[in-house]
Prior knowledge:
Helix content is 47%, strand content 14%.
Amino acid sequence: MAASVTKIAYQTMQQGKSLLGIAHKQVSTQLMDLVAPKANAETIPIRAETLQALRTSMDYLLERDWLEAEQGLYPTSQLFDAPWLDWMLRYPLVWLDLPNIWNRRLRRDVRDLPNNVDISNFPDYYLQNFHHQTDGYLSDRSAELYDLQVELLFNGTADAMRRRILKPLKERLSRANLASGALRILDVASGTGRTLRQLRGAFSSAQLVGLDLSNAYLRQANRWLSQLPGELPQLVQGNAEALPFQNESMQAVSCVFLLHELPAEAREAVLAEAFRVLVPGGVLVLADSVQLADSPQFQPVMENFRRVFHEPYYRDYIGDQIETRLSRVGFTEIKGETWFMTRIWCASKPEIG
Ligand SMILES: C[S@@+](CC[C@H](N)C(=O)[O-])C[C@H]1O[C@@H](n2cnc3c(N)ncnc32)[C@H](O)[C@@H]1O
């Protein structure tokens, strides 16, 4: 009885999020058409059957999200883990920021970054306004709005998509007999810490480490994560292409929504670094956008995403063979699965001998 009430609450909340996300996108696009029509990108119309396929795969994702919580893979409370008050207070800032975004789009300026940033600390590909975000990833203002913007973009399903890494990770770790001992999990490109929160719920006694290039995003992660019970994850500023960790120092590595924002060679370097820091038998889980090979029916949606948001490496990413890259750097037992707009890969570092 209690379970079905919770399930209905979860489904209702997700419906509400979805409606808010759709309404936000429609109203902001209409406003842009009115105020700054030249800033609007030309998009491909999405056909009714594609919309239906999106709805069906979203429902399937949410059903699975509920099921895995019920099976105890993570606490049911995680399904409701959202800073609602904070988001409500920040929502007006998303609107107030829109003219800045339109202006940059009109000027075709994708390198409008804060003046106080020492650009020599970052790879060139990083110094851009991904998604036309004000300040790129390089300010507290950007970090404070990021989660809310992602929720609006994905109609409230971002966390459900991120959580799809937990089951394959748990299963692989137990199979490799790594789940019972001391467990150290590194989340690469941890951003504001959403995946670290989920890992904390699913692996309550693991030692968690988050790494990101952005100090501002790490500060935001620190603010969110310090509200959780348990040990605060270690948060480290660094480049995923040159991880500041010793060889074979992690039992697991996760990496969520990073690969599509990297040029191909950086993508491969990140996978090679994940391999290096894993112990033999260690597990890598990746979550990122779906690709053309696994979700050809969503090709127009992927194309529109690239046109509307500044995503300079996305076109290359959606045609990239991540499995080939994983096996080239040494991973085995590579498995992929698709959930709504997200592709999940799980791979293992071979045991010695
Ligand atoms: C799209 S966000 C994803 C963040 C987070 N994983 C999530 O699920 O919300 C990409 C993140 O990758 C970080 N990033 C990009 N390139 C990086 C690199 N080379 N090394 C470390 N972090 C990087 C950015 O600072 C940003 O926080």
